[in-house]
């Protein structure tokens, strides 16, 4: 029977074997060896530079056919593409360990489980030490987050900006509450993203892709670090452990049941993507090839148990995934802000005026429902942030809230907001055209918030009041932080979907 490799929690490995346990020691050796391969030939597909550039790079493709800038973001292909990516990377690393260094044949890529917060939300020590054995440490990267007192290379947990009683940087319960893997329109929020053709940067990301996935990228990378930019993230060795945890969370979401399932849609299941194996041979896989990690790919996770719910527990119970071939009404714009906003490091309040028809539609939403009580075909409402763009890496995580009125003190959490993936990028097509961004939108279900506000009878129904503020603050600040990279949101919309 084929061997099943076991991916383990890196902090458990730390507890058992110390900083340089066998798994991380061999990983360090392999990263160093792959880096040397790239120094000899940057187009060696088993080298570190090429593997990182497959996800993203600031360098245009050197020639047609090179598989650089191929990552899938902002669409329903986010999960299967990254699973394939890690699978072949793990095979390459294992090959270096076994063939070149006679290391353990059962080596498997560990994952970084930061979900419980606390000390486990810090980078493991092996990634923070600049040197090892009198030489540079291959797992260390200087370009990481040092802003707002969260110095990840000093051992500060990425949850250092958390405020008691508010959702954490590593919150995931709200993302898990979406039972639909995908949406067939750009407005409808989902766990896994919008139905689109393959594209390095799509339209409306899945909720888990926004947070904790994107938020952790921002928290580790900050304003200048590798992890904070899609084009450089995979150059940081911690990237692969972060995505191991995201891959594991896909499995955790499926285990929740209650209608959660992978798409049974030919456009998703049959889509092909290309990678390189440990011998440098080009391989092709489809989403249908990677749905059972143990049977199809030969690996499993040591722990598929969830941690205790985080502060954002109980979020929206969105409808199940669309049924292929069944027509669905187009999303209806009920109201939109008169103008957008530019976030510059402090809080912003946006008012969205509601005309009488929009008020009546939202007021008819009914009473709040219990967990899992969403009905097929019922009206649901989404807050959409449209035309999101940045001209450079932001590295700031924002939180989105709704309030009953402009002068109300109480607030309702909507989402954590990451701008990872909104930067200008180099496309993977043959002309390597640079794209300025601005076509990214993010939407979040607000149906239960609307129901609670209506039931409370305190809602100023003439408008929707939305607050956006940097994580780690407890209110709207007065002035922008000088020099903070701006993030532009062209419009805020309220949609029925």
Automatic annotation (TrEMBL):
Its cofactor is Cu(2+). The keyword Metal-binding applies. One of its GO terms (molecular function) is tyrosinase activity. Residues 236-247 form the Tyrosinase copper-binding domain. It is an enzyme of class 1 (oxidoreductase). SUPFAM superfamilies: Di-copper centre-containing domain. Its EC number is 1.14.18.1. Signal peptide: none annotated. It comes from the Bacteria. PROSITE patterns: TYROSINASE_2 (PS00498). Residues 308-333 are annotated as: Disordered. Belongs to the tyrosinase family. This is Tyrosinase. It comes from Longispora fulva.
